[in-house]
Amino acid sequence: xxxxxxxxxxxxxxxxxxxxxxxxxxxxLVEISSIGNSFEGRKIWLATxxxxxxxxxxxxxxxxxxxxxxxxxxxxxxxxxxxxxxxxIDPKHxxxxxxxxxxxxxxxxxxxAEWTLESPPRVIRSSTRPYPYEEEDPYGLEASDLDGDGRIxxxxxxxxxxxxxxxxxxxRLMKRREPGETGGTYYRLMSEGLFHNFDGLTMRSHRRxxxxxxxxxxxxxxxxxxxxxxxxxxxxxxxxxxxxVEAVVARPNICGAVTxxxxxxxxxxxxxxxxxDDLPAEDVWTYQHIGKVGESMTGYPxxxxxxxxxxxxxxxxxxxxxxxxxxxxxxxxxxxxIWSPQRQAGITGYKYIxxxxxxxxxxxxxxxxxxxxxxxxxxxxxxxxxxxxxxxEVELGGWDFMYAFRNPPPSFLESEVSPLADWTxxxxxxxxxxxxxxxESIPLGNDTFQLRVAVQNLGWLPTNVSKIAVDRRxxxxxxxxLKCNGEANDGIGSFKPEWLISGxxxxxxxxxxxxxxxxxxxxxxxxxxxxxxxxxxxWIVKGPASFExxxxxxxxxxxxxxxxVGEK
Length: 568
Hints:
- The protein is of the alpha+beta class.
- It is 25% helix and 27% strand.
- It has an 8-stranded mixed beta sheet, with helices on both faces. A 4-stranded antiparallel beta sheet has the order 9-6-16-15.
- Helix 2 crosses helix 13 (410-428) and helix 6 (281-298) runs antiparallel to helix 13 (410-428).
């Protein structure tokens, strides 16, 4: 039986082997396939999870899950794997898998993750492909492990013009120098590493030639590099993003999505580049409802990127996955940023991005205490003298960012991602789903019959999922097709058959409501909970004959029924 480990992160071959174990152990629930290859040629694995003994995966409402598009965010893979693990191992999900499908890509960026999991890590934002230029930056400080301890920490060096000083409250920590402050001992801080072509004076960071951010390469509102750094030369230029987009488009039954990232401990939703007022109000309300449940299940606040997660108040980000899923596919998509060291340390009420620009020194002290008490001191390394080959005598130490901040430390990993997987699975259960409500043949005399088929949407969400999907005509309505068994019914080169008295072979039932639109005051004031979740289809046919009616919706699934009327 496969056993998902939470005490480490999986290398590519280990992850592939684990997925194959799930398929071997649960062949009726898991199918493993590849949606494409990465820049370096690694397969991007997709797990299709559903009860294959009860209908095709493509004929059930589905939910998309992916993770690790950013290289160092390897706990995102663990969260996606946790979704698979819960679905196949926990028997309470057996009924859901009979009626729903999950498409899970645990690691969308296998190349970048391999670099991250090296020791010491090669840390990049996203793809290993050079962009926008092939050549290396000839100058600057390149982060590297100088003392061979497997970590990339910080250097502090005394400098009368440095912006940092040793904290008077906690001497292990550095504190910013106040405006106008003089007369103390001050330091410059920088990453552990070596300078390229150092002139003895000029210090700046080395620009990595791997400058892509694949979560800026999706088609929605894509912009050029000059406006959106890391966006790539054109939308879906990167093979990993192209594979993701093509896989989603090829599966129109997808009704929602979660993409796992790190870190901040928040559930992010669109829009990224415009205010909520520019969205249909119905979609904002639904997003807010799902987000409130998410906060209660995970402890992660649900926020709109444009309003509460911008890197600069005058700038926006574009070309991201969740915007594309919502704006181009018309489904509710979320970006879950796993892990908040601040919250672990008891820091609350902070602004997620703003905190890194400005926060009280008391927060640093709280984080250090958390590292001492909960991480056995592994999150922060005490400063030690070091002879730097270019800078001379310096000190190494400070925060181990990759251990304590970028991903949950192993002892926290399972407890952190487990509720996220639960919320993801719960979201999938909201999808629209067709159910055969009624199927009857009514004799009318003279060997003629009325065939009546009624279907109902059992999902909380409507069959269109979102209002924007209707406004932009992104999804077709419910369709019912009548077939007389043994006849092609394609209508080419022929007249209407004698057996069809009234009604069209194919009928359109429009979109069916769920109950997501019902307001909390309807029960107080007698609001009408009508039957807009039901579609009824009628035909008049002549027997004797047998017929099949197939009712389908690309998101809500497929149901069918058979009739035999008259006597042969």
